[in-house]
Each structure stands twice: as C-alpha cells, then as structure tokens.
Design a protein that fits this description.
disordered N terminus; 170 residues
C-alpha cells in the first residue's frame, strides 16, 4: 500500500515526562537536540503535570495516577517505552538500529515515558512495549531527558551518516 510505504522510515518521537520545566542549561540543551531530531523525525518534548496531593502519604496511588497520564501519550500505532534502570541497555548504534527497525515496521510513533520524582508505576513499566535503561543508576528527570534527547539525535546522525557520532579507538 502506498500509504504504508510513505510512512515507512518516518516515526514521530515524543518524550513525555512528569515535572515542571525550569529555565536553565538543561532545558536549552533539550530544546537544541529536539530541534535537531526534528530535521529527521517529528519530535516533541511534553511536560506533564505530576499528581498533586497525597504524594507523600500514598506514593503508590500517585504513581498509578501518573501512569494513566503517561499512557495517554501513546497513540494508536505507537510504542510506549518506559525509561527504567532495569530496562534494556543499548549502546548508541543498537539504539539507532532499534529506532530504524521500528520506523521500517510502520510504527507511527514512539512515546518515551520518564517518571516523576516518585518514579514510574511498576504496572506501567510491565505494560510498556519496551523498557530502556539509560544507566543502571537512577537519574533526575532533567538529566534523563537530556541524555535521551542526545541519544535520539545521535541515532539520527548514525542513521544518516552524519559526522556527529564517532566510533572511538579501542
């Protein structure tokens, strides 16, 4: 079908995160990488308001409610990828290949979900189409977003043959 062929290779990227943007160098860098990714794929960084009230008293309830908010970021034909320190660790080349394979399969979009200060609901992590580990350490969401956007941009450069990604001498 012509429509499928037209869509192939073009996937929308959404990074959905729970928190409030704060002016500063992280936000500027995130926006720089998002714009660069946007040259290859439509890309958006979406801040979502964390659940307020009762977070300290019942963090599990708040995490479940936040999971509902994050799951709404996955549109039909999209993948939901939970950022989780126990997820699959990929090097930059494998991450680029994974993104390209999703686009070639006709996946319309990929929503990457980054949790709030209380993390991601375990059930959401289990329901996600994939889990990605940026590190085995827990990262603040501002840093996780920046690393994720940089890696998505790096993937566009790997896939497009750009000079940004260099394989180190070992």
């Amino acid at each position: 079908c012509t429509g499928d062929r037209h869509r192939r290779g073009r996937v929308k990227i959404r990074v959905a995160w729970l928190g409030r943007p704060k002016a500063g160098p992280f936000e500027q860098q995130v926006e720089t990488y998002r714009k660069r990714v946007g040259r290859r794929w439509p890309a958006e960084d979406r801040a979502l308001r964390p659940v307020s009230g009762g977070r300290d008293r019942d963090p599990e309830r708040a995490a479940r409610m936040e999971a509902e908010i994050l799951e709404r970021q996955k549109e039909p034909g999209w993948l939901l990828v939970a950022l989780d320190e126990h997820g699959r660790a990929r090097n930059s080349e494998n991450f680029a290949k994974w993104l390209a394979a999703a686009a070639d399969r006709g996946v319309r979009g990929i929503a990457f979900a980054i949790g709030s200060d209380i993390g991601l609901d375990g059930a959401l992590v289990q329901r996600a189409d994939d889990r990605l580990a940026l590190s085995s350490m827990t990262l603040p969401h501002a840093l996780a977003r920046l690393v994720l956007w940089e890696q998505i941009y790096r993937a566009t450069q790997i896939l497009g043959g750009g000079a940004y990604h260099r394989v180190g001498l070992q």
